[in-house]
Protein backbone atom coordinates (compact mmCIF):
# COMPACT_ATOMS: atom_id res chain seq x y z
CA UNK A 1 0.00 0.00 0.00
CA UNK A 2 2.86 2.32 0.84
CA UNK A 3 4.58 1.63 -2.50
CA UNK A 4 1.30 2.27 -4.31
CA UNK A 5 0.95 5.63 -2.61
CA UNK A 6 4.53 6.46 -3.52
CA UNK A 7 3.83 5.63 -7.18
CA UNK A 8 0.63 7.69 -7.11
CA UNK A 9 2.60 10.67 -5.90
CA UNK A 10 5.15 10.49 -8.73
CA UNK A 11 4.82 13.15 -11.45
CA UNK A 12 3.95 12.29 -15.04
CA UNK A 13 7.40 13.21 -16.25
CA UNK A 14 9.05 10.81 -13.80
CA UNK A 15 6.56 8.05 -14.66
CA UNK A 16 7.25 8.38 -18.37
CA UNK A 17 10.99 8.51 -17.78
CA UNK A 18 10.83 5.35 -15.62
CA UNK A 19 8.80 3.49 -18.25
CA UNK A 20 11.18 4.60 -20.99
CA UNK A 21 14.22 3.66 -18.89
CA UNK A 22 12.73 0.23 -18.08
CA UNK A 23 12.11 -0.39 -21.79
CA UNK A 24 15.66 0.63 -22.68
CA UNK A 25 17.16 -1.56 -19.93
CA UNK A 26 15.04 -4.51 -21.03
CA UNK A 27 15.96 -4.14 -24.70
CA UNK A 28 19.61 -3.55 -23.85
CA UNK A 29 19.68 -6.64 -21.62
CA UNK A 30 18.13 -8.78 -24.32
CA UNK A 31 20.57 -7.50 -26.93
CA UNK A 32 23.53 -8.02 -24.61
CA UNK A 33 22.44 -11.58 -23.83
CA UNK A 34 21.94 -12.37 -27.52
CA UNK A 35 25.24 -10.75 -28.47
CA UNK A 36 27.26 -12.73 -25.93
CA UNK A 37 25.69 -16.06 -26.81
CA UNK A 38 25.81 -15.54 -30.56
CA UNK A 39 29.49 -14.60 -30.42
CA UNK A 40 30.19 -17.63 -28.23
CA UNK A 41 28.56 -19.99 -30.70
CA UNK A 42 30.20 -18.31 -33.69
CA UNK A 43 33.61 -18.77 -32.08
CA UNK A 44 32.75 -22.40 -31.36
CA UNK A 45 31.69 -22.95 -34.97
CA UNK A 46 34.88 -21.33 -36.23
CA UNK A 47 37.02 -23.59 -34.05
CA UNK A 48 35.26 -26.84 -34.97
CA UNK A 49 36.82 -27.39 -38.40
CA UNK A 50 40.02 -25.43 -37.89
CA UNK A 51 41.94 -28.65 -37.23
CA UNK A 52 40.66 -30.21 -40.48
CA UNK A 53 41.58 -27.10 -42.42
CA UNK A 54 45.06 -27.09 -40.89
CA UNK A 55 45.57 -30.76 -41.79
CA UNK A 56 44.45 -30.09 -45.37
CA UNK A 57 46.93 -27.24 -45.62
CA UNK A 58 49.63 -29.46 -44.07
CA UNK A 59 48.96 -32.19 -46.64
CA UNK A 60 49.06 -29.61 -49.43
CA UNK A 61 52.47 -28.32 -48.30
CA UNK A 62 53.73 -31.90 -48.01
CA UNK A 63 52.72 -32.54 -51.61
CA UNK A 64 54.40 -29.29 -52.69
CA UNK A 65 57.66 -30.39 -51.04
CA UNK A 66 57.58 -33.80 -52.74
CA UNK A 67 56.68 -32.28 -56.11
CA UNK A 68 59.34 -29.55 -55.98
CA UNK A 69 61.99 -32.11 -54.94
CA UNK A 70 61.12 -34.40 -57.85
CA UNK A 71 61.15 -31.44 -60.22
CA UNK A 72 64.67 -30.47 -59.10
CA UNK A 73 65.90 -34.02 -59.50
CA UNK A 74 64.56 -34.08 -63.06
CA UNK A 75 65.67 -30.58 -64.15
CA UNK A 76 68.40 -29.60 -61.71
CA UNK A 77 67.61 -25.89 -62.29
CA UNK A 78 68.08 -23.05 -59.86
CA UNK A 79 64.40 -22.14 -59.99
CA UNK A 80 63.39 -25.67 -59.10
CA UNK A 81 65.80 -25.68 -56.19
CA UNK A 82 64.52 -22.30 -54.87
CA UNK A 83 60.96 -23.56 -55.17
CA UNK A 84 61.89 -26.68 -53.16
CA UNK A 85 63.46 -24.70 -50.33
CA UNK A 86 60.46 -22.34 -50.22
CA UNK A 87 58.01 -25.23 -49.83
CA UNK A 88 60.36 -27.01 -47.45
CA UNK A 89 60.37 -23.98 -45.16
CA UNK A 90 56.60 -23.61 -45.36
CA UNK A 91 56.09 -27.25 -44.43
CA UNK A 92 58.59 -26.98 -41.58
CA UNK A 93 56.62 -24.00 -40.20
CA UNK A 94 53.36 -25.93 -40.57
CA UNK A 95 54.52 -28.98 -38.56
CA UNK A 96 55.55 -26.71 -35.69
CA UNK A 97 51.85 -26.29 -34.85
CA UNK A 98 51.48 -30.04 -34.35
CA UNK A 99 51.52 -31.34 -30.78
CA UNK A 100 54.47 -33.58 -29.91
CA UNK A 101 53.59 -34.54 -26.28
CA UNK A 102 52.80 -38.15 -25.44
CA UNK A 103 49.14 -39.02 -24.94
CA UNK A 104 46.87 -42.03 -24.72
CA UNK A 105 44.46 -40.37 -27.13
CA UNK A 106 44.70 -42.04 -30.53
CA UNK A 107 44.29 -38.84 -32.53
CA UNK A 108 46.88 -36.94 -30.50
CA UNK A 109 49.26 -39.89 -30.85
CA UNK A 110 48.79 -39.82 -34.64
CA UNK A 111 49.48 -36.07 -34.62
CA UNK A 112 52.75 -36.73 -32.73
CA UNK A 113 53.80 -39.43 -35.19
CA UNK A 114 53.06 -37.15 -38.16
CA UNK A 115 55.33 -34.50 -36.68
CA UNK A 116 58.18 -36.97 -36.06
CA UNK A 117 57.86 -38.54 -39.51
CA UNK A 118 57.72 -35.11 -41.14
CA UNK A 119 60.97 -34.09 -39.48
CA UNK A 120 62.60 -37.31 -40.72
CA UNK A 121 61.07 -36.80 -44.17
CA UNK A 122 62.52 -33.29 -44.47
CA UNK A 123 65.92 -34.68 -43.49
CA UNK A 124 65.71 -37.25 -46.27
CA UNK A 125 64.59 -34.68 -48.88
CA UNK A 126 67.44 -32.38 -47.98
CA UNK A 127 69.94 -35.27 -48.24
CA UNK A 128 68.45 -36.21 -51.61
CA UNK A 129 68.89 -32.65 -52.89
CA UNK A 130 72.48 -32.54 -51.63
CA UNK A 131 73.32 -35.88 -53.22
CA UNK A 132 71.86 -34.74 -56.54
CA UNK A 133 73.86 -31.55 -56.44
CA UNK A 134 77.01 -33.65 -55.67
CA UNK A 135 76.17 -35.92 -58.61
CA UNK A 136 76.18 -38.97 -56.41
CA UNK A 137 73.67 -41.01 -58.37
CA UNK A 138 73.53 -44.10 -56.19
CA UNK A 139 73.15 -42.12 -53.02
CA UNK A 140 70.42 -39.69 -54.14
CA UNK A 141 68.37 -42.56 -55.68
CA UNK A 142 68.31 -44.47 -52.40
CA UNK A 143 67.44 -41.40 -50.39
CA UNK A 144 64.81 -40.33 -52.90
CA UNK A 145 63.15 -43.75 -52.58
CA UNK A 146 63.24 -43.49 -48.78
CA UNK A 147 61.83 -39.94 -48.89
CA UNK A 148 59.04 -41.05 -51.24
CA UNK A 149 58.14 -43.94 -48.93
CA UNK A 150 58.10 -41.56 -45.94
CA UNK A 151 55.88 -39.18 -47.94
CA UNK A 152 53.38 -42.00 -48.50
CA UNK A 153 53.29 -42.87 -44.78
CA UNK A 154 52.83 -39.29 -43.78
CA UNK A 155 50.02 -38.74 -46.30
CA UNK A 156 48.27 -41.85 -45.01
CA UNK A 157 48.58 -40.68 -41.41
CA UNK A 158 47.33 -37.20 -42.28
CA UNK A 159 44.33 -38.68 -44.10
CA UNK A 160 43.50 -40.95 -41.16
CA UNK A 161 43.90 -38.14 -38.63
CA UNK A 162 41.77 -35.83 -40.78
CA UNK A 163 38.97 -38.41 -40.94
CA UNK A 164 39.10 -38.95 -37.18
CA UNK A 165 38.99 -35.24 -36.43
CA UNK A 166 36.16 -34.76 -38.92
CA UNK A 167 34.06 -37.39 -37.14
CA UNK A 168 34.68 -35.76 -33.76
CA UNK A 169 34.00 -32.28 -35.17
CA UNK A 170 30.77 -33.47 -36.76
CA UNK A 171 29.56 -34.67 -33.38
CA UNK A 172 30.53 -31.31 -31.85
CA UNK A 173 28.84 -29.47 -34.72
CA UNK A 174 25.58 -31.34 -34.15
CA UNK A 175 25.71 -30.55 -30.43
CA UNK A 176 26.48 -26.92 -31.15
CA UNK A 177 23.70 -26.76 -33.75
CA UNK A 178 21.24 -28.09 -31.18
CA UNK A 179 22.47 -25.48 -28.72
CA UNK A 180 21.95 -22.71 -31.30
CA UNK A 181 18.39 -23.91 -31.91
CA UNK A 182 17.77 -23.93 -28.17
CA UNK A 183 19.20 -20.41 -27.95
CA UNK A 184 16.93 -19.35 -30.81
CA UNK A 185 13.86 -20.68 -29.03
CA UNK A 186 14.96 -19.10 -25.75
CA UNK A 187 15.63 -15.76 -27.44
CA UNK A 188 12.24 -15.84 -29.14
CA UNK A 189 10.58 -16.58 -25.82
CA UNK A 190 12.50 -13.80 -24.06
CA UNK A 191 11.70 -11.28 -26.81
CA UNK A 192 8.01 -12.15 -26.72
CA UNK A 193 7.99 -12.01 -22.93
CA UNK A 194 9.81 -8.67 -22.91
CA UNK A 195 7.48 -7.20 -25.52
CA UNK A 196 4.44 -8.44 -23.60
CA UNK A 197 5.76 -7.04 -20.34
CA UNK A 198 6.58 -3.75 -22.02
CA UNK A 199 3.09 -3.54 -23.55
CA UNK A 200 1.50 -4.29 -20.18
CA UNK A 201 3.57 -1.60 -18.45
CA UNK A 202 2.72 0.96 -21.15
CA UNK A 203 -0.98 0.06 -21.01
CA UNK A 204 -1.02 0.43 -17.23
CA UNK A 205 0.85 3.73 -17.37
CA UNK A 206 -1.28 5.19 -20.17
CA UNK A 207 -4.44 4.07 -18.40
CA UNK A 208 -3.42 5.85 -15.22
CA UNK A 209 -2.93 9.00 -17.32
CA UNK A 210 -5.78 8.81 -19.82
CA UNK A 211 -8.57 7.43 -17.60
CA UNK A 212 -8.82 10.50 -15.33
CA UNK A 213 -8.29 12.74 -18.36
CA UNK A 214 -11.24 11.13 -20.16
CA UNK A 215 -13.42 11.57 -17.09
CA UNK A 216 -12.23 15.16 -16.75
CA UNK A 217 -12.90 15.87 -20.45
CA UNK A 218 -16.43 14.43 -20.20
CA UNK A 219 -17.17 16.51 -17.12
CA UNK A 220 -15.64 19.62 -18.73
CA UNK A 221 -17.93 19.20 -21.76
CA UNK A 222 -20.95 19.07 -19.46
CA UNK A 223 -19.78 22.23 -17.69
CA UNK A 224 -19.20 23.92 -21.07
CA UNK A 225 -22.82 23.12 -21.96
CA UNK A 226 -23.97 24.93 -18.81
CA UNK A 227 -24.45 21.99 -16.47
CA UNK A 228 -22.74 22.95 -13.23
CA UNK A 229 -24.46 20.22 -11.18
CA UNK A 230 -21.95 17.60 -12.31
CA UNK A 231 -20.39 15.22 -9.84
CA UNK A 232 -16.97 16.05 -8.53
CA UNK A 233 -14.25 14.10 -10.37
CA UNK A 234 -12.51 11.77 -7.94
CA UNK A 235 -8.75 11.43 -8.35
CA UNK A 236 -6.22 9.56 -6.25
CA UNK A 237 -2.98 10.55 -7.97
CA UNK A 238 -0.88 13.53 -6.98
CA UNK A 239 0.75 14.07 -10.37
CA UNK A 240 -0.03 16.84 -12.87
CA UNK A 241 -3.34 15.17 -13.88
CA UNK A 242 -4.36 15.00 -10.23
CA UNK A 243 -3.46 18.65 -9.69
CA UNK A 244 -5.45 19.74 -12.77
CA UNK A 245 -8.43 17.58 -11.76
CA UNK A 246 -8.50 18.97 -8.24
CA UNK A 247 -8.23 22.51 -9.57
CA UNK A 248 -11.12 21.80 -11.98
CA UNK A 249 -13.23 20.39 -9.14
CA UNK A 250 -12.54 23.47 -7.04
CA UNK A 251 -13.41 25.71 -9.99
CA UNK A 252 -16.74 23.93 -10.54
CA UNK A 253 -17.58 24.17 -6.84
CA UNK A 254 -16.69 27.88 -6.82
CA UNK A 255 -18.77 28.55 -9.94
CA UNK A 256 -21.67 26.60 -8.47
CA UNK A 257 -21.51 28.62 -5.25
CA UNK A 258 -21.20 31.84 -7.19
CA UNK A 259 -24.22 31.02 -9.36
CA UNK A 260 -26.21 30.22 -6.22
CA UNK A 261 -25.32 33.54 -4.64
CA UNK A 262 -25.93 35.31 -7.93
CA UNK A 263 -29.40 33.81 -8.29
CA UNK A 264 -30.27 34.89 -4.77
CA UNK A 265 -29.30 38.52 -5.35
CA UNK A 266 -29.79 39.10 -9.08
CA UNK A 267 -33.31 40.55 -8.78
CA UNK A 268 -32.38 42.98 -6.00
CA UNK A 269 -29.20 43.97 -7.78
CA UNK A 270 -31.08 44.68 -11.00
CA UNK A 271 -33.56 46.89 -9.17
CA UNK A 272 -30.79 48.68 -7.30
CA UNK A 273 -28.86 49.28 -10.50
CA UNK A 274 -31.87 50.75 -12.27
CA UNK A 275 -32.59 52.91 -9.25
CA UNK A 276 -28.95 54.01 -9.10
CA UNK A 277 -29.00 55.04 -12.75
CA UNK A 278 -32.20 57.03 -12.29
CA UNK A 279 -30.85 58.63 -9.12
CA UNK A 280 -27.58 59.51 -10.82
CA UNK A 281 -29.42 61.16 -13.71
CA UNK A 282 -31.77 63.08 -11.42
CA UNK A 283 -28.96 63.98 -9.05
CA UNK A 284 -26.82 65.49 -11.79
CA UNK A 285 -29.78 67.48 -13.09
CA UNK A 286 -30.75 68.59 -9.57
CA UNK A 287 -27.20 69.56 -8.70
CA UNK A 288 -26.86 71.64 -11.85
CA UNK A 289 -30.19 73.34 -11.25
CA UNK A 290 -29.45 73.92 -7.58
CA UNK A 291 -25.98 75.33 -8.16
CA UNK A 292 -27.19 77.57 -10.97
CA UNK A 293 -30.06 78.94 -8.89
CA UNK A 294 -27.85 80.69 -6.30
CA UNK A 295 -28.06 84.34 -7.34
CA UNK A 296 -27.60 87.11 -4.75
CA UNK A 297 -30.31 89.78 -5.22
CA UNK A 298 -27.97 92.46 -3.78
CA UNK A 299 -26.11 92.59 -7.09
CA UNK A 300 -29.32 93.46 -8.89
CA UNK A 301 -30.12 96.27 -6.47
CA UNK A 302 -26.63 97.77 -6.59
CA UNK A 303 -26.66 97.69 -10.37
CA UNK A 304 -30.01 99.46 -10.58
CA UNK A 305 -28.79 102.14 -8.13
CA UNK A 306 -25.76 102.75 -10.33
CA UNK A 307 -28.09 103.11 -13.31
CA UNK A 308 -30.20 105.67 -11.46
CA UNK A 309 -27.12 107.69 -10.54
CA UNK A 310 -25.88 107.59 -14.15
CA UNK A 311 -29.27 108.84 -15.41
CA UNK A 312 -28.92 111.85 -13.14
CA UNK A 313 -25.50 112.94 -14.38
CA UNK A 314 -25.43 111.83 -18.06
CA UNK A 315 -27.52 112.10 -21.18
CA UNK A 316 -30.02 109.55 -22.33
CA UNK A 317 -27.74 107.67 -24.79
CA UNK A 318 -25.26 106.49 -22.21
CA UNK A 319 -28.03 105.64 -19.84
CA UNK A 320 -29.78 103.69 -22.57
CA UNK A 321 -26.66 101.70 -23.41
CA UNK A 322 -26.02 100.95 -19.79
CA UNK A 323 -29.56 99.87 -19.14
CA UNK A 324 -29.47 97.67 -22.27
CA UNK A 325 -26.33 95.92 -21.05
CA UNK A 326 -27.88 95.44 -17.64
CA UNK A 327 -31.04 94.08 -19.23
CA UNK A 328 -29.10 91.67 -21.43
CA UNK A 329 -27.11 90.51 -18.44
CA UNK A 330 -30.12 89.71 -16.29
CA UNK A 331 -32.14 88.39 -19.21
CA UNK A 332 -29.35 85.87 -19.86
CA UNK A 333 -29.11 84.97 -16.16
CA UNK A 334 -32.82 84.27 -15.90
CA UNK A 335 -33.31 82.63 -19.31
CA UNK A 336 -30.21 80.45 -19.38
CA UNK A 337 -30.20 79.50 -15.71
CA UNK A 338 -31.26 75.90 -16.40
CA UNK A 339 -29.78 75.37 -19.86
CA UNK A 340 -26.61 74.21 -21.59
CA UNK A 341 -25.27 77.02 -23.75
CA UNK A 342 -22.60 77.59 -26.36
CA UNK A 343 -19.30 79.02 -25.17
CA UNK A 344 -19.74 82.18 -27.28
CA UNK A 345 -22.92 83.01 -25.29
CA UNK A 346 -20.92 82.88 -22.08
CA UNK A 347 -18.33 85.20 -23.64
CA UNK A 348 -21.07 87.68 -24.61
CA UNK A 349 -22.31 87.66 -21.01
CA UNK A 350 -18.77 88.49 -19.83
CA UNK A 351 -18.70 91.39 -22.29
CA UNK A 352 -21.92 92.79 -20.75
CA UNK A 353 -20.57 92.24 -17.25
CA UNK A 354 -17.26 94.04 -17.94
CA UNK A 355 -19.16 96.95 -19.46
CA UNK A 356 -21.32 97.24 -16.31
CA UNK A 357 -18.23 97.09 -14.07
CA UNK A 358 -16.43 99.78 -16.04
CA UNK A 359 -19.48 102.02 -15.76
CA UNK A 360 -19.69 101.46 -12.03
CA UNK A 361 -15.96 101.90 -11.45
CA UNK A 362 -15.22 104.57 -14.04
CA UNK A 363 -13.36 102.33 -16.52
CA UNK A 364 -11.00 100.83 -13.93
CA UNK A 365 -10.71 97.54 -15.79
CA UNK A 366 -8.70 97.03 -18.98
CA UNK A 367 -10.36 94.12 -20.80
CA UNK A 368 -8.68 92.05 -23.55
CA UNK A 369 -9.95 89.05 -25.52
CA UNK A 370 -7.97 86.47 -27.50
CA UNK A 371 -10.62 84.17 -28.91
CA UNK A 372 -10.34 81.37 -31.46
CA UNK A 373 -13.87 81.65 -32.84
CA UNK A 374 -13.67 78.14 -34.26
CA UNK A 375 -13.82 76.76 -30.72
CA UNK A 376 -16.72 78.77 -29.29
CA UNK A 377 -19.51 76.41 -30.37
CA UNK A 378 -18.66 73.89 -27.67
CA UNK A 379 -21.52 73.40 -25.21
CA UNK A 380 -21.00 74.20 -21.53
CA UNK A 381 -23.23 74.73 -18.47
CA UNK A 382 -24.55 78.31 -18.25
CA UNK A 383 -23.14 80.89 -15.82
CA UNK A 384 -19.63 79.40 -15.54
CA UNK A 385 -17.47 82.11 -17.09
CA UNK A 386 -18.98 85.30 -15.57
CA UNK A 387 -18.45 84.10 -11.94
CA UNK A 388 -14.74 83.57 -12.68
CA UNK A 389 -14.42 87.09 -14.12
CA UNK A 390 -16.35 88.40 -11.13
CA UNK A 391 -13.94 86.68 -8.72
CA UNK A 392 -11.01 88.12 -10.66
CA UNK A 393 -12.40 91.59 -10.08
CA UNK A 394 -13.61 91.15 -6.50
CA UNK A 395 -10.53 89.40 -5.10
CA UNK A 396 -7.82 90.37 -7.56
CA UNK A 397 -8.40 93.89 -8.96
CA UNK A 398 -10.78 95.74 -6.68
CA UNK A 399 -8.29 97.09 -4.14
CA UNK A 400 -5.11 97.39 -6.24
CA UNK A 401 -3.34 100.69 -6.85
CA UNK A 402 -2.37 99.96 -10.45
CA UNK A 403 -4.48 99.61 -13.56
CA UNK A 404 -6.47 96.40 -13.46
CA UNK A 405 -6.42 94.07 -16.42
CA UNK A 406 -8.49 91.03 -17.33
CA UNK A 407 -7.55 88.84 -20.33
CA UNK A 408 -10.01 86.27 -21.66
CA UNK A 409 -8.46 83.64 -23.97
CA UNK A 410 -9.89 80.67 -25.84
CA UNK A 411 -7.37 78.41 -27.62
CA UNK A 412 -6.72 74.82 -28.62
CA UNK A 413 -4.10 72.83 -26.67
CA UNK A 414 -3.67 69.31 -28.04
CA UNK A 415 -6.97 67.49 -27.59
CA UNK A 416 -8.59 70.05 -25.29
CA UNK A 417 -10.03 73.54 -25.51
CA UNK A 418 -8.55 75.90 -22.95
CA UNK A 419 -10.61 78.85 -21.67
CA UNK A 420 -8.38 81.15 -19.61
CA UNK A 421 -9.30 84.13 -17.40
CA UNK A 422 -6.20 86.06 -16.29
CA UNK A 423 -6.02 89.10 -14.03
CA UNK A 424 -3.00 91.14 -13.00
CA UNK A 425 -4.28 91.58 -9.47
CA UNK A 426 -2.98 90.71 -6.03
CA UNK A 427 -2.41 87.04 -6.84
CA UNK A 428 -2.21 84.42 -4.10
CA UNK A 429 0.25 82.27 -2.18
CA UNK A 430 1.28 78.81 -3.35
CA UNK A 431 -0.45 77.05 -0.45
CA UNK A 432 -3.75 78.73 -1.21
CA UNK A 433 -3.44 77.79 -4.88
CA UNK A 434 -2.97 74.12 -3.87
CA UNK A 435 -5.99 74.26 -1.57
CA UNK A 436 -8.19 75.82 -4.26
CA UNK A 437 -7.16 73.23 -6.83
CA UNK A 438 -8.01 70.50 -4.32
CA UNK A 439 -11.26 72.32 -3.36
CA UNK A 440 -10.28 72.39 0.32
CA UNK A 441 -11.14 76.06 0.98
CA UNK A 442 -14.39 77.72 1.92
CA UNK A 443 -15.44 80.69 -0.14
CA UNK A 444 -15.98 84.02 1.56
CA UNK A 445 -19.61 84.92 2.11
CA UNK A 446 -21.43 88.17 2.66
CA UNK A 447 -20.12 90.17 -0.27
CA UNK A 448 -23.16 92.03 -1.52
CA UNK A 449 -21.57 92.87 -4.86
CA UNK A 450 -21.32 89.17 -5.80
CA UNK A 451 -23.92 87.12 -7.62
CA UNK A 452 -23.32 84.26 -5.18
CA UNK A 453 -21.92 81.74 -7.68
CA UNK A 454 -18.39 81.16 -6.48
CA UNK A 455 -15.36 79.31 -7.81
CA UNK A 456 -16.18 76.02 -6.08
CA UNK A 457 -19.68 76.18 -7.53
CA UNK A 458 -18.29 76.51 -11.06
CA UNK A 459 -15.75 73.74 -10.53
CA UNK A 460 -18.41 71.36 -9.23
CA UNK A 461 -20.76 72.05 -12.13
CA UNK A 462 -18.06 71.57 -14.75
CA UNK A 463 -16.87 68.33 -13.11
CA UNK A 464 -20.44 67.01 -13.06
CA UNK A 465 -21.11 68.03 -16.64
CA UNK A 466 -17.90 66.68 -18.19
CA UNK A 467 -17.58 63.79 -15.70
CA UNK A 468 -13.98 64.68 -14.92
CA UNK A 469 -12.44 66.01 -11.74
CA UNK A 470 -9.61 68.18 -13.09
CA UNK A 471 -11.59 70.41 -15.45
CA UNK A 472 -10.50 73.65 -13.73
CA UNK A 473 -6.95 74.62 -12.72
CA UNK A 474 -5.83 77.74 -10.85
CA UNK A 475 -2.32 79.13 -11.06
CA UNK A 476 -0.46 82.13 -9.60
CA UNK A 477 3.20 83.03 -9.43
CA UNK A 478 2.76 84.63 -6.00
CA UNK A 479 1.51 87.80 -4.34
CA UNK A 480 0.99 90.81 -6.67
CA UNK A 481 1.68 88.56 -9.66
CA UNK A 482 -1.89 88.00 -10.77
CA UNK A 483 -4.01 84.86 -11.05
CA UNK A 484 -5.11 82.66 -13.95
CA UNK A 485 -8.11 80.31 -13.96
CA UNK A 486 -8.20 77.83 -16.86
CA UNK A 487 -10.98 75.51 -18.02
CA UNK A 488 -9.80 72.31 -19.77
CA UNK A 489 -12.69 71.22 -21.97
CA UNK A 490 -12.62 68.06 -24.12
CA UNK A 491 -12.51 68.84 -27.83
CA UNK A 492 -13.81 66.84 -30.77
CA UNK A 493 -12.81 68.01 -34.23
CA UNK A 494 -16.02 66.97 -35.99
CA UNK A 495 -18.10 68.98 -33.53
CA UNK A 496 -16.17 72.22 -33.82
CA UNK A 497 -14.99 72.53 -37.45
TrEMBL record:
It is found in: Membrane. It comes from the Bacteria. This is histidine kinase. Keywords: Kinase, Membrane, Phosphoprotein, Transferase, Transmembrane, Transmembrane helix, Two-component regulatory system. Residues 207-260 form the HAMP domain. One of its GO terms (molecular function) is phosphorelay sensor kinase activity. Its main location: membrane. Residues 384-493 form the Histidine kinase domain. The lineage of its organism: Bacteria, Bacillati, Bacillota, Clostridia, Lachnospirales. It is an enzyme of class 2 (transferase). PROSITE patterns: HAMP, HIS_KIN. It comes from Lachnoclostridium phytofermentans. InterPro entries: Bact_2-comp_sensor_kinase, HAMP_dom, HATPase_C_sf, HATPase_dom, His_kinase_dom, Sig_transdc_His_kin_internal. The chain crosses the membrane at residues 16-36, 186-205. It holds the Pfam family HAMP. SMART domains: HAMP (SM00304). GO terms for cellular component: membrane. It catalyses: ATP + protein L-histidine = ADP + protein N-phospho-L-histidine. Its EC number is 2.7.13.3.
Amino acid sequence: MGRKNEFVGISLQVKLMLAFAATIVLVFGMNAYMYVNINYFINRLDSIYVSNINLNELEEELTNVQTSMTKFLNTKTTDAMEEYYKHEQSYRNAIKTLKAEKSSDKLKLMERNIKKMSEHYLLLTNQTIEAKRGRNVEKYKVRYENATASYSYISTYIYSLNNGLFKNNSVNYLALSNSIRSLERLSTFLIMSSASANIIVILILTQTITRPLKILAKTANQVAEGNFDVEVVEVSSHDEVGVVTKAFDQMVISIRDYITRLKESVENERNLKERELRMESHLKDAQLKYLQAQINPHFLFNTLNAGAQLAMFEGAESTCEYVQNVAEFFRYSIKKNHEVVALHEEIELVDHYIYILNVRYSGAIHYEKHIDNRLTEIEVPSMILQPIVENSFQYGLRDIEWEGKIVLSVYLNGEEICVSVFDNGVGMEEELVKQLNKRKTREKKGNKDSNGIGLNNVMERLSLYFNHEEVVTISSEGMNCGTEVTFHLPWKCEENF
